[in-house]
């Protein structure tokens, strides 16, 4: 856990000015954490793409969780959706290694579920590696159900939102 954490966390959308903060976030992810996102390029170029034209795409939504010090904002988590224009979009979440175990994942998950409900989604889908025990525990506590394996051999999980009637 990070000793500088004081409890004030902001979750906000990515902006075009976030390239440096996103790249620093990538640099602080361990190889173990990176392995949960196979094929994902944790590079400066990827940070530029995510904070460039991707910000304006209608089918993606990206949010960062950060803590603020007098000197700088530090990105400590990342929430993303793709296929946002679908009734049930795909979802992903990542927490910087030195901020794991303090409840940040739960806070980000609660935000993500509320955001999807606010936009009248029918639920959210995700995949997770079979060895991601902490992620699976968070997803199950949040109401996700396992519905099978995806073609890459990862677990496929869904959280359905009850229809309002």
From TrEMBL:
The keyword Cell membrane is annotated on this UniProt entry: no
CDD domains reported in the protein's UniProt record: NAT_SF (cd04301)
Keywords linked to the UniProt accession: Acyltransferase, Transferase
EC number: 2.3.-.-
Top-level taxon in the UniProt lineage: Bacteria
Domain N-acetyltransferase: 9-162
One Pfam family hit: Acetyltransf_1
GO molecular function: acyltransferase activity
InterPro entries for this protein: Acyl_CoA_acyltransferase, GNAT_dom, MshD_Acetyltransferase
Keyword Transmembrane helix: no
Database matches in PANTHER family: L-AMINO ACID N-ACETYLTRANSFERASE (PTHR43617)
Protein name per Swiss-Prot or TrEMBL: GNAT family N-acetyltransferase
Organism the protein comes from: Cohnella suwonensis
Organism lineage string: Bacteria, Bacillati, Bacillota, Bacilli, Bacillales
């Amino acid at each position: 856990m990070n000793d500088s954490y004081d409890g004030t966390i902001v979750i906000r959308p990515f902006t075009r000015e976030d390239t440096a903060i996103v790249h620093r976030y990538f640099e602080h992810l361990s190889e173990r954490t990176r392995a949960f996102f196979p094929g994902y390029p944790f590079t400066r170029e990827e940070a530029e793409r995510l904070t460039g034209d991707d910000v304006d795409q209608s089918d993606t939504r990206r949010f960062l969780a950060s803590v603020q010090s007098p000197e700088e904002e530090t990105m400590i988590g990342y929430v993303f959706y793709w296929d946002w224009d679908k009734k049930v979009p795909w979802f992903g979440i990542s927490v910087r290694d030195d901020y794991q175990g303090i409840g940040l994942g739960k806070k980000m998950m609660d935000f993500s579920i509320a955001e999807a409900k606010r936009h009248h989604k029918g639920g959210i889908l995700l995949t997770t590696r079979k060895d991601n025990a902490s992620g699976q525990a968070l997803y199950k506590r949040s109401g996700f159900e396992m519905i099978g394996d995806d073609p890459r051999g990862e677990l496929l999980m869904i959280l359905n939102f009850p229809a309002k009637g």
